[in-house]
């Protein structure tokens, strides 16, 4: 029995009741890893019980002498409170290769959102009905920083993070139960992408120079916006001889090669000659950490009256190529997806008329 990775997915191998090997997939990411650890621990415990083995913790506890009141008693590991368990989970992420940016964001989320509500509660005494249902309801019924109601996507993500922390506690023997067990995530309403190429041009006309350049690079290379890909792209990742960009995806821990058009490559030559930061996208010679605010301002000046994100440029990068007949597998590779099914589920359903076009290819039988 054990935990391992296959194509970026966390897997657990174990032996079933017939003695045959079985492999179970838990998906990708830290939440999947924590679930895999918990499942592996569960299978190992079941295997020990089936062989009649008694855990060391039980035997030690039974041999403990009665202590007098003036002798300090060691705190049981199962009395850990959520705040301390979350700290241990963050430390685990830090030594497991999680990016510093993502770790800081999660740590801030725990401190500001989770700890004020459940930070001082003993995890092993918490239940789904009494503790986690009210916890989830608070986020459903209270607005976020923007003053607007939180989306179900955000509420589900909060629940996933807390679930991962509890799974980690069970897997590491710090808690006995996961209070989130029994939770059923509410179905998320698919986000409607309304951004068009024409609107991108309108936004770029109203954007500052560095935002305009960031949009152009993001759309032409299909990068994930932000520090994970777009703002982490350096000139050393651009091969001017082969006209390609080597993009590292911190999400999947892989590199992908994306061809660069002749026009964009020429602009990159000019930009690099003036750059002093070493990064493809910068501001006044310094690396940029975030462009969300500048992008939002450009959208407002362009009178874009529907929700739009920088990530929508990556979406449009994919759907534009697919609508023009590009090979699905090629687009999937350009996006950095490890499986074509990911591209299909996220982008292909947005293409109007594809089912009708497919049916029209059928021949007449009569």
From TrEMBL:
Low complexity bias (residue ranges): 47-69
Region ranges (Disordered): 41-70
Gene Ontology terms, MF aspect: DNA binding
Protein keywords: DNA recombination, DNA-binding
InterPro entries linked to this entry: DNA_brk_join_enz, Integrase-like_cat_sf, Integrase_catalytic, Integrase_recombinase_N, Tyrosine_recombinase_XerCD
Single GO biological process annotation from the record: DNA recombination
The Tyr recombinase domain, residue ranges: 190-360
One protein family per Pfam: Phage_integrase
PANTHER family hit by this protein: PHAGE INTEGRASE-RELATED, PROPHAGE INTEGRASE INTD-RELATED
Entry similarity comment: Belongs to the 'phage' integrase family.
Protein name (database record): Site-specific recombinase
